[in-house]
Write a structure and sequence with these properties.
Elements: E1 4-8, H1 14-30, E2 34-37, H2 44-57, E3 60-65, E4 67-74, E5 82-88, H3 90-106, E6 111-117, H4 126-129, E7 134-136, H5 139-149, E8 164-172, E9 179-188, E10 198-204, E11 216-219, E12 223-228, H6 230-235, E13 252-257, E14 269-275, E15 282-287, H7 288-291, E16 300-302, E17 312-314
Parallel strand pairs: 1-2, 1-3, 3-6, 6-7
Antiparallel strand pairs: 4-5, 8-9, 8-16, 9-13, 10-12, 10-14, 11-12, 14-15, 16-17
């Protein structure tokens, strides 16, 4: 499989669309890599299944920043007492933030090349991670530069080692629409088979009505907690299911109630920590309110949390 270069470019104008496609053609002509052009998505599933999955597995990132509006505010030090600057695309701001967080938490190195329309102000994370932005007045300038820089890239597919991610499926009871079962499985998104594992999980105890749920280790005033060590993984025969790219059967059911009067808050969240060998811990957090928005009966892959919350994407079976 060829390493993927993620290409993020605006598609508001014809010039922007042509630039994105031309960048893809440069990658295809090089022949060593596979381009992914981040196209506009109109649904949560489209964003998570396509954009986030490709972004988190890409070996290279090419971002093109176009202006998306004039911002002005009072500033006595500026001409006329007003400071003005061009705002950048929100899409690319988010993608740069995700990429920076992923590289920081997973110790990965992603080749990055940023192009910015002259006049767009650098702010937020771009002020720190954009160490090599190339400004341009016309789109052709970005193409000429990328043709010259791409041959110097030597990219390899992302090597993750063991990377166990939770897979969640939400089921509603046929007789009680407020009673849900959350089914947990594991998916190995890495390129090695694990030889050990540990799972820690917590959930708001006020949404639990059973006196005991198989696998729980303790209850506090705020949470029910689960702590499964390597022996539990062995007893569940999970390692035989965890070849790279494989997903286990359901191994744990969590039963909970959410009614119209539950009044879910920001502190009501499912939190999961998975460890295996020397790999960095995978930390996931899904607010219960977001959990309740997942389609019923459909397995969803939970990605490591970014900014306090985990992206969630439908699990696509291998072809």
């Amino acid at each position: 499989m060829k390493p993927v270069i993620f290409i993020s470019c605006g598609q508001v104008t014809d010039d922007e669309l042509r630039l994105g496609k031309a960048l893809c053609e440069i990658v295809q002509t090089d022949g060593r890599y596979e381009p992914y052009f981040a196209e506009n998505q109109s649904s949560f599933e489209g964003v998570t299944q396509n954009i986030l999955r490709q972004l988190t597995s890409a070996a290279g990132f090419v971002g093109v920043i176009h202006p998306r509006g004039d911002v002005h505010f009072p500033d006595p030090t500026s001409p006329g007492g007003v400071r003005r600057f061009d705002l950048a695309s929100v899409w690319i701001e988010q993608e740069i933030a995700i990429l920076a967080a992923q590289n920081h938490t997973q110790g990965r190195v992603t080749a990055v090349q940023i192009y910015s329309k002259r006049g767009v102000v650098r702010e937020g994370l771009r002020s720190y991670v954009m160490t090599n932005p190339v400004e341009f007045d016309h789109e052709d300038e970005a193409l000429v530069h990328f043709r010259s820089v791409l041959p110097s890239w030597t990219l390899a597919p992302a090597i993750n080692g063991v990377r166990l991610l939770p897979v969640l499926t939400r089921i509603v009871d046929d007789r009680d629409p407020a009673f849900f079962t959350l089914r947990l499985a594991f998916h190995n998104a890495g390129d090695k088979r694990p030889t050990d594992g540990r799972l820690k999980m917590s959930f708001p105890v006020r949404l639990i009505r059973h006196n005991f749920i198989p696998g729980e280790t303790r209850r506090t005033n705020s949470h029910i907690e689960f702590d499964m060590n390597n022996e539990w993984f062995v007893q569940q025969e999970l390692f035989g299911w965890l070849y790279p790219g494989y997903t286990t059967r359901v191994v744990l059911d969590l039963w909970y109630w959410v009614t119209d009067t539950s009044e879910l808050g920001s502190g009501d969240a499912l939190e999961i920590e998975i460890r295996s060998g020397d790999a960095a811990a995978v930390l996931c957090r899904i607010p219960v309110e977001a959990l309740q928005s997942l389609p019923l009966g459909l397995p969803h892959l939970v990605l490591p949390k970014i900014g306090g919350q985990s992206p969630v994407t439908p699990l696509v079976p291998p072809h």
